[in-house]
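Weekly structure sync, notes
Attendees: PL (lead), two postdocs, one rotation student
Agenda item 3: pending single-chain targets
PL asked that the sequence for the first pending target be pasted directly into the notes so everyone works from the same version. It is reproduced below exactly as submitted, 362 residues in total.
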Amino acid sequence: MDQGKLSRIVAAMNEQDMPQMIISDPVSIFYLTGTWIAPGERLLALYIHVNGENHMIVNRLFPQKKDLGVEITYYDDIEDGVEIMSQFIDKTQPIGIDKTWPARFLLRLQELGAGSKFVNGSVIVDTVRQIKDEKEIELLRISSKINDDVMAELVKYANQGYTEKELNAKAREIYAAHGCEGVSFDPITAYAGGAADPHHVTDDSKGKRGDCVLLDIGGFKDNYASDMTRTFFLGEVSDRAREVYEIVREAEARGIAAAKPGNKMKDVDLACRNYITEKGFGEYFTHRTGHSCGLEDHEWGDVSSVNEAIIQPGQCFSIEPGIYLPEENLGVRIEDLVIITEDGCDVLNKYPKDLIVLPFED
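Predicted structure, written out during the meeting:
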């Protein structure tokens, strides 16, 4: 296991008076071991105790060929994996449980009386994962650089008569060509009314002159996610659309300026939200301003108006204000990922944010 990351988790466990915990999330297990294990419906659990007596329970279907830095006990499908794991747990102490662990395993563990109290332990790993080390930051930079390149290629197809679904498929094709493991979420490739619906499901719509085109895309490169949104216009842009676009762009700039150590996560949200409200569009900014990003596109720790958490160096999160006007078939969102530095933030995305009108032939 990565001893630096493990030591940070153990320190956090001691601070929270949590002597032992179970980590079952394959992403968090990868974070600590550098190995992906996809157990499907089967039990997978990494048991950690602050005294260093750590253990992993893995089904025999997933034999590990390299040393993960922790003792492994294998079980097969006719054995009770939870009962085997319970033998390593101190039944006299509280135990933290990963939020992703299926209830069928937790209930069985409770039946066995393995632990004096069961608490949500996810905040421990989630908090540690929020602060990226130098290697992680470099991987995030690389992933975002590729995302810039993918956006530059994808936008060339946005005015070529593609449907939203075809544009979505083109995005996946471009990510694969850039050596990405896949997309970090289902690409949002939306025209007009689709862009005005933050929950829009990509369909067979095509763009027409004057429509906005919203491209919200991201990929996985070397396991780390990217995420960026840009909004373009086909052929022409109305004064109304231009006004909305410039408000969103300024709102995002204000959010970026507020993203610095010592501020609260809510300060970033409110920097964007208050400006949009001041301009008369507050009710049309219908979602939080951002989310943490790393091994997953959406990690724990959001940029919302109620998040009192203090921003710290090493955090990576999105800043993505938007204005959505369904009755006008207009939606604008601009999104970048930022890394928090010692005195501010570094914007990972370099793709331009000037209003761009794409050539369009009717």
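Discussion points:
- The CA atoms of residues 261 and 359 lie 42 Å apart.
- The first helix runs from residue 3 to 15.
Action: rotation student to compare against the earlier draft before next sync.
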